[in-house]
């Protein structure tokens, strides 16, 4: 297990797991402009990989949470994911004190997610260019932040963000992958296309990734917060093993214990063989405080 803390932010945790027998799990809470944010995360190397290229970020003082799934060889993918997360967190540290977290600042928060992701892209791309052996490395990236009334998120690649509200799980992101684009082009839903998805030969081909190209398009969105909202971010090692209803069921089974929910997601994924690294991150909004 490697646990890294970013300089100058002792409460910030970035985790990867290098042992097939152990997983990183952490649960804590923070306050966001009157809302109490409870959060937990877990990562595991899985049962077939020799290195964990997944990374998650918990940065409560900036109300910033993120996951990344690296790609590009034994060391390149892990480096890409770590570098992207570090760059995103550093950018939020630099600009965080200048931004008032109010509904009027929606565009500023969305801009910060886009800018932080684009800076992460530049950092990974430059690192790959300077080290020829790591050319082509990249990473997915999902980032989530909050103000007084809303949640904001950005994503690149096929890591996902879901919202669990009133017992139902809704997927908030669409994969930047050849498979997803093919399904959308032919108006095929995942529920109706199980056989097609299983036989599609390019299901792991991404159409966007952080660091693969000089520039990257970043998808951003926001939603109004409701008390009790739970946001779930997963890498493909989880959502390729579990369907949406299975994940929803695990969240229903653990409505107040986010750490237990993370453990349950990891255990069920591992029971399916876990050929890939797996990461799940949960953030629950409580409040606002009176």
Structural topology:
Layout: E1 2-4, E2 13-16, E3 23-32, E4 35-44, E5 54-59, E6 64-71, H1 76-96, H2 106-130, E7 138-139, E8 141-146, E9 150-156, E10 160-165, E11 168-171, H3 178-185, H4 194-199, E12 219-224, E13 230-234, H5 236-239, H6 244-253, H7 258-271, E14 278-286
Antiparallel strand pairs: 1-2, 2-5, 3-4, 4-14, 5-6, 6-7, 6-8, 8-9, 9-12, 10-11, 10-13, 13-14
Organism: Lujinxingia litoralis
GO molecular function, one term: protein serine/threonine phosphatase activity
InterPro entries: PP2C, PPM-type-like_dom_sf, PPM-type_phosphatase-like_dom
What does this structure look like?
- The chain is of the alpha+beta class.
- It has one domain (2-171, 208-286): PPM-type phosphatase domain (Phosphatase 2c, domain 1, 4-Layer Sandwich).
- It is 30% helix and 30% strand.
- It is built from seven helices and 14 strands.
- It has helices at 76-96, 106-130, 178-185, 194-199, 236-239, 244-253, 258-271; strands spanning 2-4, 13-16, 23-32, 35-44, 54-59, 64-71, 138-139, 141-146, 150-156, 160-165, 168-171, 219-224, 230-234, 278-286.
- The strands form two sheets. Strands 1, 2, 5, 6, 7, 8, 9 and 12 form an eight-stranded antiparallel β-sheet that branches. Strands 3-4-14-13-10-11 form a six-stranded antiparallel β-sheet.
- A hairpin with a 3-residue loop joins strand 8 (141-146) and strand 9 (150-156).
- Helix 1 packs antiparallel against helix 2 (106-130) and helix 6 (244-253) crosses helix 7 (258-271).
- The chain is globular.
- It starts with a strand and ends with a strand.
- Residues 1-10 and 17-25 have low confidence and may be disordered.
């Amino acid at each position: 297990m490697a646990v890294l803390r970013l300089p100058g932010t002792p409460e910030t945790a970035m985790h990867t797991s290098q042992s097939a027998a152990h997983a990183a799990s952490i649960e804590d809470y923070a306050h966001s402009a009157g809302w109490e944010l409870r959060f937990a995360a877990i990562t595991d190397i899985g049962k077939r990989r020799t290195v964990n290229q997944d990374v998650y970020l918990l940065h409560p003082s900036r109300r910033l949470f993120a996951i990344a799934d690296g790609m590009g060889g034994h060391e390149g993918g892990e480096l890409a994911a770590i570098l992207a997360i570090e760059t995103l967190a550093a950018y939020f540290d630099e600009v965080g004190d200048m931004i008032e977290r109010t509904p009027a600042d929606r565009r500023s928060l969305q801009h910060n997610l886009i800018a932080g992701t684009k800076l992460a892209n530049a950092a990974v791309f430059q690192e790959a260019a300077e080290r020829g052996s790591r050319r082509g490395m990249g990473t997915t990236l999902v980032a989530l932040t909050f103000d007084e009334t809303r949640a904001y998120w950005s994503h690149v690649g096929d890591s996902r963000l879901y919202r669990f509200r009133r017992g139902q799980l809704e997927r908030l992101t669409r994969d930047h992958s050849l498979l997803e684009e093919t399904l959308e082009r032919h108006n095929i839903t995942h529920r109706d296309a199980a056989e097609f998805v299983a036989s599609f030969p390019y299901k792991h081909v991404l159409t966007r990734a952080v660091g693969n190209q000089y520039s990257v398009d970043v998808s951003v969105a926001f939603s109004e917060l409701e008390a009790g909202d739970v946001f779930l971010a997963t890498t493909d090692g989880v959502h390729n093993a579990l369907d949406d209803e299975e994940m929803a069921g695990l969240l229903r089974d653990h409505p107040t214990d986010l750490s237990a929910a993370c453990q349950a997601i990891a255990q069920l994924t591992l029971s399916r063989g876990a050929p890939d690294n797996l990461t799940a991150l949960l953030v629950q909004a409580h409040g606002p405080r009176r």
